């Protein structure tokens, strides 16, 4: 079973192929002079079942079109079943209609992805657990908690606490606490200025003076919440502050803000290709997890 990769996350695809004991399928990706995508699968017999890896990260629309074109090319070469590995499902945060006249974007994307013969989709930490319902094929929503649990166990001491930085991260933080053997939780009270949009922290449930703080989140986007949380924790005496986040979108300017913040270490997975040389970043691969799911 060959592994084919789009241009968005070739490092992960290479590592996945190694975990599966196979190789990357030969593929040529380029662009025409008018900027349209051009795909050529340089394999005469790719097999009946293949793996196609493509994160829908920025530039999202380009990677989406590329995925569909690769899938169509594989189908025309006789491939009958494609296991789609889409570690970061772009448009997944556009999972609701807020105003009349807006599309349900993630549902549209699900339909577009299924123009090719998918057997199943493997992804990570979806923003909304209702999203798999927009697909007509099975969706396996893996969690980055497993790799973080294995890595963070060696960081835990009797001074460690886990901080839930907002209401949306409470459940994730509580599960992470259980993963690490019942590490104490600290709940932080975040408010957002409705005029400026600036995040401000007012209080927390427990003191953090002298504590080593772990923050667990699914996603780093602008980094604003993490920066303000780190500042507040440091002002209240936290010794060190480390972050675990499954997805890092590498939004322009975000990593620079994180680098200048009191954050000590930022642990992310390779669901999205590394786009920073920051010394604070620690990338933990999910290739083995994906391989185990494919082999199951």
| Proper CATH architecture of the largest domain | 3-Layer(aba) Sandwich
Quick one: how many beta strands? 14
Radius of gyration: 20 Å
Report the CATH C-level class of the largest domain.
Alpha Beta
SSE pattern, N- to C-terminal: EHEEEHEHEEHEHEEEHEHEEH
The geometry reads as globular
Beta strand %: 25-35%
* Class from secondary-structure proportions: alpha/beta
User: First CA to last CA: what distance?
Assistant: 14 Å
Q: Could you say what the CATH topology of the largest domain is called?
A: Rossmann fold
Detail the poorly predicted runs. Answer: none
The percentage helix is 25-40%
Task: Tally the structural domains.
Answer: 2
Mean pLDDT: 96
- Please work out how many helical segments DSSP would assign: 8
Quaternary organization: single chain
Strand arrangement, largest sheet?
A: 10-9-8-11-12-13-14
The biggest sheet amounts to:
7 strands, mixed
GO molecular function: ATP binding; kinase activity; magnesium ion binding; ribose phosphate diphosphokinase activity
Organism: Candidatus Beckwithbacteria bacterium RIFCSPHIGHO2_12_FULL_47_17
Domain Ribose-phosphate pyrophosphokinase N-terminal: 1-115
GO cellular component, one term: ribose phosphate diphosphokinase complex
Name some characteristics of this structure.
296 residues, alpha/beta, Rossmann fold, 2 domains, seven-stranded mixed β-sheet, 8 helices, 14 strands, ribose-phosphate diphosphokinase, ribose phosphate diphosphokinase activity, PRTase-like
């Amino acid at each position: 079973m060959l592994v084919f990769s789009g241009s968005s996350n070739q490092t992960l695809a290479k590592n996945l192929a190694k975990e599966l004991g196979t190789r990357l399928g030969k593929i040529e990706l380029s662009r025409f002079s008018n900027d349209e995508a051009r795909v050529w699968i340089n394999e005469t017999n790719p097999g009946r079942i293949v793996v196609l890896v493509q994160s829908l990260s920025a530039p999202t629309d380009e990677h989406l079109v590329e995925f569909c074109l690769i899938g169509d090319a594989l189908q025309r070469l006789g491939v009958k079943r494609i296991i789609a590995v889409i570690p970061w499902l772009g448009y997944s945060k556009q999972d609701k209609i807020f105003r009349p006249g807006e599309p349900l974007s993630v549902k549209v994307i699900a339909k577009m992805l299924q123009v090719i013969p998918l057997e199943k989709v493997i992804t990570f930490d979806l923003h909304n657990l209702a999203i798999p319902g927009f697909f007509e094929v099975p969706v396996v929503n893996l969690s980055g908690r497993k790799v973080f649990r294995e890595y963070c166990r060696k960081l835990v001491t009797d001074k460690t606490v886990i901080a839930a930085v907002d209401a949306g991260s409470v459940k994730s933080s509580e599960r992470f606490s259980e993963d690490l053997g019942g590490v104490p939780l600290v709940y932080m009270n975040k408010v957002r200025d409705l005029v400026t949009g600036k995040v401000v922290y007012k209080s927390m449930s427990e003191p953090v003076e002298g504590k080593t703080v772990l923050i667990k989140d699914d996603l780093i986007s602008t980094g604003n919440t993490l920066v303000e949380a780190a500042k507040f924790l440091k002002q209240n005496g936290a010794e060190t502050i480390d972050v675990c986040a499954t997805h890092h979108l590498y939004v322009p300017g975000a990593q620079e803000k994180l680098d200048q913040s009191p954050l000590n270490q930022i642990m992310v997975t390779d669901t999205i290709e590394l786009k920073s040389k920051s010394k604070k970043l620690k990338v933990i691969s999910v290739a083995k997890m994906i391989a185990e799911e494919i082999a199951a």
